[in-house]
Design goal:
Elements: H1 5-32, E1 47-55, H2 62-66, E2 71-72, E3 77-78, E4 85-92, H3 97-101, E5 108-114, E6 120-124, E7 134-136, E8 152-157, E9 163-170, E10 176-183, H4 184-218, H5 222-242, H6 244-248, H7 255-282, H8 288-309, H9 313-336, H10 351-372, H11 385-459, H12 465-493, E11 501-503, H13 505-513, E12 522-526, E13 533-535, H14 537-554, E14 561-570, E15 573-583, H15 614-624, E16 628-631, E17 637-645
Parallel strand pairs: 12-14
Antiparallel strand pairs: 1-2, 1-4, 3-10, 4-9, 5-8, 5-10, 6-7, 6-9, 11-13, 14-15, 15-17, 16-17
Helix pairs in contact: 1-4, 1-11, 4-5, 4-11, 5-7, 5-11, 7-8, 7-9, 8-9, 9-10, 10-11, 11-12, 12-15, 13-14, 14-15
Length: 646
């Protein structure tokens, strides 16, 4: 199991997209910030003074508020949630002549208003007091706007001298507004940059979503599934907050529905986000009390949708905003109180990793929630700090989940390796048990027969010469079985290097044939120029002795055992080629697949005493000497060939 190429490609592209967005986002704020201390000729924004007024009665008109006491302010106005009407007074400087006529464009100023999801804004233009106020906002059809963009906009005639413009803000969302007065060229340039940034935001969030879905398809996981829900909600929230439904769906959906959708996505997204974190943190064994608090917030946020349905929009949004400040702080505390993972625990994310991640997310979200609650001032870009939080949280969380997936993959591989080792151990243990059973069966059978023969010979009062010979052979059989068992165990467990020396092969053959009975009928055919073989004489004698013993036991009666020795070249290496051949007797031709297996004896071989270790041991020793022992039957002839390097 591994992360796919697609998932590994998405991550660096998403990171690159995020870096580009964070680098380019402040550029928009540079053109929007209007400070009175700057030279007017160097400003694009023609707003030179701002003031606000609260109308708790929601009934005052433009003529009534003009003479009242106003509160000056600089930068965006953030007053939190309230049920009253907010009036904004803007002092707008005239455009320079070159700005008015440089490109032959109409003498128009664009009042560019952010954020774009305000309910209703009315413009009272002193240049045309006889006309009714111009209206904008989510409650009004975007298609009726004279200037269309992701923001709320008004067009006014460029003044020839400073003028005061009044805006009336009525909204059930937080009373936050930032207004710029730009030439049409500057407004279009700003909007093109804004469209580029908004498109990058959505692309980045979609890239993270695609990578998460791909990772889930490869390894279905409850936490990754929760993150997919989190990411889908974040994308929908970002698109509604940025104004995508108003721009692209106004032909199909009513303005009232789009306005309700924008407000309703706030508690829905907050619920999805808290739901994901409750699943994610559960793996780290946080304090139960803290998780109960998180689950309580998870219950409250969806209830705010019902509060909205019953008409308490402002109360519901203020509650969700307050929860949006509380839950990231609670996540930081829970991360700090999680149990530190130990070796072998899963997941492998450290407490420091969790705390750092949640601390960054909390700091970013504070720039959105505190100004929205009217507790702190904020720069223009903070109007969209909730979107910045979505970008940063998506990157941090996906990185954490990817790290978690990689660590889980390592754990699965370790578990699989341990399982394979356990299975191999079980198979080996089974083989050893079978070998042990075979050994005990062979030992019991062969020693019982040999001991019975020896008992008869010893128990006879006056044993005959044949009887004594049978007794001696029985004792020799017992000795041979024990010797082969001992050698087999020694060669299986020991890696002792052979003691190599010059060996006269012909002399060794004659020495091994000398103690055999006269009727052995062994014919030796050796190359007259057979060179001396450098090998371990004792081990070579064991191999040849076993081959001669095997041929004597299982040959046809009175048949000849042919032994040949010569030189054979294999590759670039010269070696000794020794062949022992006999005609098969009553035991038949041995099975080629089992002839060198430990304790194996053919069905017809049980008539003769044996351990089933001779050929197995000979093959083992041949390999230890750097050679090879082969079995090559031909019709009724049994042939074993030994090759050892000279």
């Amino acid at each position: 199991m591994r992360l796919s190429f697609f998932a590994r490609l998405i991550a660096p592209l998403a990171h690159l997209c995020l870096v580009w967005l964070l680098a380019s986002w402040p550029l928009q704020g540079q053109a929007q910030t209007a400070q009175p201390a700057l030279d007017q000729q160097e400003q694009r924004d023609r707003v030179i003074a701002q003031a606000w007024l609260d109308d708790p009665t929601n009934s005052l008109g433009a003529d009534q508020v003009r003479g009242m006491a106003w509160t000056p302010y600089v930068g965006p106005l953030r007053l939190g949630y309230k049920a009253s009407t907010t009036w904004v007074r803007l002092t707008i400087a005239p455009l320079a002549n070159e700005e008015l006529h440089g490109k032959g464009r109409p003498d128009i100023l664009v009042l560019r208003i952010q954020p774009g999801h305000l309910d209703e804004i009315a413009l009272f233009d002193p240049q045309h007091p006889e006309l009714p106020p111009q209206m904008a906002g989510d409650k009004h059809d975007w298609r009726l706007s004279e200037y269309r963009s992701f923001n709320q906009n008004f067009l006014i005639a460029a003044p020839t001298q400073p003028i005061e413009v009044l805006l009336r803000l009525r909204t059930k969302t937080h009373h936050g507004i930032h207004v710029e007065a730009l030439s049409r060229d500057d407004a279009e340039a700003q909007d093109r940059q804004q469209q580029l940034i908004f498109g990058g935001v959505v692309i980045f969030l979609f890239m993270v979503l695609i990578a998460a879905v791909n990772a889930w398809f490869e390894h279905p996981d409850r936490v990754m599934a929760a993150f997919i829900v989190h990411q889908v909600a974040s994308i929908l929230f970002a698109m509604t907050l940025l104004g995508f439904p108003r721009v692209y769906l106004s032909s199909w959906l009513s303005a009232h529905f789009i306005d309700s959708l924008t407000a309703g996505m706030f508690p829905v997204t907050t619920t999805a986000v808290i739901w994901f974190h409750s699943h994610f943190l559960r793996e780290f064994n946080p304090p139960k009390l803290g998780m109960h608090c998180l689950n309580l917030l998870l219950i409250i946020t969806p209830l705010m949708v019902l509060v909205m349905v019953f008409g308490q929009m402002s109360l519901a949004l203020q509650t969700v905003t307050t929860i949006s400040f509380i839950y990231p702080l609670l996540l930081v505390i829970l991360a700090a109180l999680t149990a530190q993972p130990t070796q072998g625990d899963s997941p492998k994310l450290s407490r420091r990793h969790l705390v750092s991640m949640y601390a960054v997310m909390f700091a970013v979200l504070c720039t959105a929630t505190l100004p929205a609650l009217g507790l702190t001032a904020s720069p223009p870009w903070a109007m969209y700090s909730a979107i910045v939080y979505g970008l940063i949280s998506a990157a941090l969380l996906f990185n954490a989940l990817r790290f978690r997936a990689l660590e889980s993959l390592k754990d699965r591989r370790k578990t699989l390796s341990a399982l394979l080792l356990a299975e191999q151990g079980a198979v080996l243990e089974g083989k050893q048990r079978i070998e042990q059973d075979q050994f005990m069966t062979m030992l019991t059978h062969e020693l019982t027969n040999a001991l019975a023969t020896a008992h008869l010979a010893i128990g006879s009062l006056s044993p005959s010469a044949p009887m004594r010979a049978r007794g001696y052979r029985a004792i020799e059989t017992i000795r041979d079985i024990l010797r082969r068992c001992s050698l087999s165990g020694e060669f299986e467990l020991s890696e002792t290097a052979p003691q190599r020396a010059a060996v006269d092969v012909l002399a060794l053959l004659q020495e091994l044939c000398e103690p055999l009975p006269p009727d052995a009928n062994i014919q030796i055919n050796a190359d007259p120029e057979l060179p001396v073989c450098t090998t371990d004489r004792k081990l070579m004698a064991i191999i040849v002795g076993n081959l001669l013993d095997n041929a004597l036991k299982y040959r046809a009666s009175d048949s000849v055992i042919a032994v040949s020795a010569g030189v054979q070249i294999r590759g670039a290496l010269a070696g000794l080629h020794l062949s022992v051949m006999n005609t098969a007797g009553d035991a038949g031709i041995p099975d080629a697949e089992h002839v060198f297996k430990k304790y194996w004896r053919g069905p017809g071989a049980t008539r003769c005493a044996g351990s089933g270790l001779g050929l197995y041991l000979s093959s083992l020793i041949a390999n230890r000497l750097g050679g090879e022992l082969r079995y090559r039957p031909e019709n009724s002839t049994v042939r074993f060939e030994l090759w050892l390097p000279i």
